Structure formats: structure tokens, C-alpha cells
TrEMBL record:
The gene is rsrA. InterPro entries: Anit_sigma_mycothiol_RsrA (IPR024020), Znf_put (IPR027383). NCBIfam families: antisig_RsrA (TIGR03988). This is Mycothiol system anti-sigma-R factor. Residues 11-44 form the Putative zinc-finger domain.
Length: 103
């Protein structure tokens, strides 16, 4: 997604780190770059608004539910893989392999 205009920060970089911005998990200097980009780029601003709305909806609808510990561990494991730069396989990387009887 891009508006076709050149920006100081490329649209792909903005979209790749959008959730870090939404979750306030980046340095203030990077937040300023994002805010400046959103002022210039309406497609990225629209995507930001959509993702922000989805995040609020999920929090409102599911915010009180307890997350099962095994699900939390799987999600955190995937996030660790992504943050370390490893590719994440499509299959469940945290599932235990089937025993010979299950294969």
C-alpha cells in the first residue's frame, strides 16, 4: 500500500511496524516519524485507523477473557521468532510432534 508519493519513511516500513506504534512499543523518535508519515500519506493513515478500531473492538469484546497459558506461550514464542528475524513457518511451531502411533 502506498499513495505513490515519496516519503522520508517508506510505507512498507510504516506498515511493517504498525502494531509496535499502536501498542506504544517504540521509541518516541520513531513515533514522531510515524505521525509525520500519517500526515502525508492517507492510505497509511486509513490503515492505521482501521487497525486501531479493530484493536479497540477486540479489547472491548474479549478484554475480560482469560487467555489460556498454552496459547499465551505459543503467541509469545512466535513473537520472539519474528523479533529475532527468523522466518515463521505456516504450521504450529510450538506443537509437539505426533507420536509414532498418531502418525
Amino acid at each position: 500500500m502506498s499513495c505513490g508519493e515519496p516519503h522520508e519513511t517508506d510505507c512498507s516500513e510504516i506498515l511493517d511496524h504498525l502494531y509496535e506504534f499502536l501498542d506504544k512499543e517504540m521509541p518516541d523518535s520513531d513515533c514522531v516519524k510515524f505521525e509525520h508519515h500519517f500526515e502525508e500519506c492517507s492510505p497509511c493513515l486509513e490503515k492505521y485507523g482501521l487497525e486501531q478500531a479493530v484493536k479497540k473492538l477486540v479489547k472491548r469484546c474479549c478484554g475480560q477473557d482469560d487467555v489460556p497459558n498454552d496459547l499465551r506461550a505459543k503467541v509469545m514464542g512466535r513473537l520472539d521468532l519474528i523479533r529475532s528475524g527468523h522466518s515463521v513457518p505456516e504450521h504450529d511451531v510450538t506443537a509437539t510432534p505426533p507420536t509414532p502411533q498418531e502418525s
